[in-house]
Fold each of these.
Amino acid sequence: MHSKLAADGRRDYYRGTMKVSGKRVLVTAGASGIGATVAQRFLQAGAHVHVCDIDERALQNFSAAHTEISASLCDVADEAAVDTLFEDLDARFGGLDVLVNNAGIAGPTGQIDTLQLSDWRRTLSVNVDSIFLCTRRALPMLKAADDASIVNMSSTAGFMGYPLRTPYASAKWAVIGLTKSLAMELGSLGIRVNAICPGPVAGERMDSVIAAEAQARGVATESVREGYAQTVSLSRFVDADEIADAILFLASPAARSISGQALAVDGHTETLVQR
Ligand code: NAD
């Protein structure tokens, strides 16, 4: 009952200046995790949604559960695969209003001298190259759209030091630099570009991040989990729904004067260092 009321309220909310109905939206890495929640939220708000993902099984399961959302198998760090994704998208929608560059992997956990170059490169590639590749292909479509926008997924690790996670922090800082530079390049075309910086989001991804950090630091998993909550002013993890709502806001006319921003949705992270 409570969730039905919440869903009805959200539909009303997205009828005013928060309106995203009718927009054509691409969410990368949308078969599970935050991307899947974002895709569903846009659909509920009346948008036309396409997702892509590298995980074929996850994509099949997502497509079976969400027949109104179209989908492509795609590694967004792969140039040829991104070309095919945009051919699929063009055939399906004939344009694009909102690009959500959500894809990003956690990468390895450990002191820098224990890390492999291949893991470093893959982390940078999935988190940053993907935005370059997708934005480059999306641009002709976004130029042709009214009130087009791009939302890039950074992290609180995009504006703070994050020991034992140097590839991830480097990638997410790069996402903010890319966002601000693109906002300047594309502003005169009326295309807005913003970044979202989630704090720890409750779910499988954080469970594996916490387990890896506990192992690297030789401490109990639960103490790492509590440490993450304690370093947030609101003393809790955030939900994927909260990230999705912030992305819908940035894609809506309510945010028509908002560009070049890195918006933290994190309960206010005070530090990413646990001692
Ligand atoms: P996740 O690890 O749950 O992965 C979500 C999806 O990404 C999966 O379906 C996976 O198959 C797909 N994916 C992975 N590599 C891909 C690739 N190369 N091409 C296409 N799809 C790919 O991630 P998440 O927790 O949903 O995170 C989504 C975004 O939010 C990422 O950019 C992440 O860095 C960022 N973020 C997450 C958190 C968190 O606590 N979960 C916090 C801050 C930022």
Note: Strands lie at 24-28, 48-53, 70-73, 98-101, 149-153, 192-198, 262-265.
Amino acid sequence: MLRRLLAASLCAAALLAGSLPHPAAAQAEKTLNVYNWSDYIDPDAVAKFEQESGIKIRYDVFDSLETLEGKLSAGRSGYDIVVPTSEPTFARLAKAGALLPLDRGKIPNWGNQDPALLKQVESSDPGNRFGAIYLYGTIGLAIRPDRVRALAPDAPLDSLDLLMKPENARRLAGCGIAVMDSAIDVLPTVLKWAGRNPNSSDTADLRVAEEALLAIRPHVRAITASSSILDALANGEYCVALTYSGDAIQAQARAREAKRGVEIGYVQPREGAQLWFDMLAIPADAPNPEGAHAFINFLLRPEVMAGITNQVRYPNAVTAATPMVQEDVRNDPNIYPTPEMLARTFTVQALPASAARAYGRSWNRFKAGR
Ligand code: N2P
């Protein structure tokens, strides 16, 4: 009798198990593995998505494209959402088949994105098949205007000369100069400043950029992660730092809150600033593509995007979010660039592999100082 009962219940359990998803799969559907830039989301957005969807977010951060590429190059990263910059990383991943084509049927908020900006990123992703626009910005200088004026009164406050002319760098060295540790995101800006093609694969051009960097190297205190530059800037540790626009403005906001007399400004170099777009994308082997689509759709809600921009000080591409963004953020031309400022930006494209390696070697020589 007991044996028969046991057999029956085992049978029922087996039947039940057959009708339910595999336990590992069910587990995967309950978590979403997100790999995003540091200091790049509103914590409330993460909490709200978790609460609404019942999906738990496991959130990891990176602070350079080199780190992101290193993590993704081998495949099987385990991530469901990654946020590569349109050029070069996102374009490269899309071309290599490393990303899942987005199913727009699962992203009803897709149409919230500004069509003009979507068109602009189509050069990296024809048909916008693999990515939604998360945030965008420029690369330039975070500065402490009062200190710079005191130490180098004749130096221009709107130009990369502030960093790249050795006589300026020498005078500002004691006050702290930092450059973010990314060949991919720094060398185009230096090439542009030197009057070269910012997207050059030409060894002679790269040589010019490298020589210019080596000339200021003795005056540079730190070539380090963009995330640690943000923290140090907010504490007043640097007078000039080459970094991402919104990071400078986040540091400005934090320094103001701390009320210790540290004033920080952002300079979009007049020589031309690199404009970039960070894309929400799903790795081809993502464990939870369903959840990833739901998360992208959630982020494209105007009120969610407005909250993110308010928090991280980068503009987004959701048109209806703009009126919900705080006035001081919305009206800051260093966050939402004016048409004139946009006209003075440039974009890059992925380099051939051999040129990308040469950039890496130049960068290592800059870091080593020889
Ligand atoms: C966030 C930096 C993200 C901008 N800290 C780089 N695309």
Note: Confidence is low (pLDDT under 50) at residues 1-20.
